[in-house]
Amino acid sequence: MNDQICWYCQSGVKDYFCVKCGRIQPIPACDDFFSYLGLERKLNLNAPKLERRFHTLSRLFHPDFFQRKSPEEQEVSLENSSVLNKAYRTLRDPISRLEYLIQLEKGDTGGIRAKAPPDLLEEVLELQEKLGEIRGLKQEGNLYLLENARGELRTELKSLENRLLKLEGRMIQLSGQWDDLPLPGTSRGGFVEGGPQDQEIRGGGEDAETRRRKGEILSEFRNILSHRTYIMNITEDIKKELS
Fold first, then answer.
1. pLDDT for the residue 198
2. What's the rounded Cα separation, in Å, for the pair 197 and 14?
3. Could you report how far apart the first and last alpha carbons of the chain are, in Å?
4. Phi, then psi, of 56 in degrees rounded to 5
5. What DSSP element (H or E) covers 18?
6. Model's pTM, two decimal places?
7. How far is the C-alpha of 175 from the C-alpha of 198, rounded, in Å?
8. Residues 119-152: pLDDT tens digits?
């Protein structure tokens, strides 16, 4: 944050406040959620550390502390608090954290669409037929056949839930591989607990092998998330019919 200057007196800025006039400063546009909270771009975050940094910044930015300040400072306080809350919610949840990391690394803001795993397509067609059959049996009131069909559906549901567990296990493996990569530092300027504002969290560049491996991991993550969403949607449909 050394390159940032105060919007009021054009002096230097440290820890989101002017070193001269003390006024609160807006979060630099270059700050992503990881660097904003003083964290490395890792997927296995230290949850207590994230909590502490969130509460530290919350106390610094809370609008209640700026009620007697200028309208400009009140506006900055509100905006900083809003970004902080969004950053915390995003990084606290493992799935949203992963989706955000993919967005940062790949520049993809369009989201990840649900897609059926290729080896599941035939099974999905059979499931759709079974769901249609159950809906018809409900309307007919044929309780005997309905219960038999539901039993088959419960078996399919268990199979899909096992698939989800395998996908989650693979995500855990890939997360460890990602965290082990020699990644460069996050953007400068994140609040570092107990340390200088402009601390480099990681240093150095990336070689060709690291870039290649990053691309492979991110691509597999995208496929896993896409398949996971699709399977979760199917399991929800099944649970509705079983309820």
1. 38
2. 6
3. 55
4. -60, -50
5. strand 17-18
6. 0.83
7. 27
8. 999 999 999 899 988 888 888 888 888 889 899 9
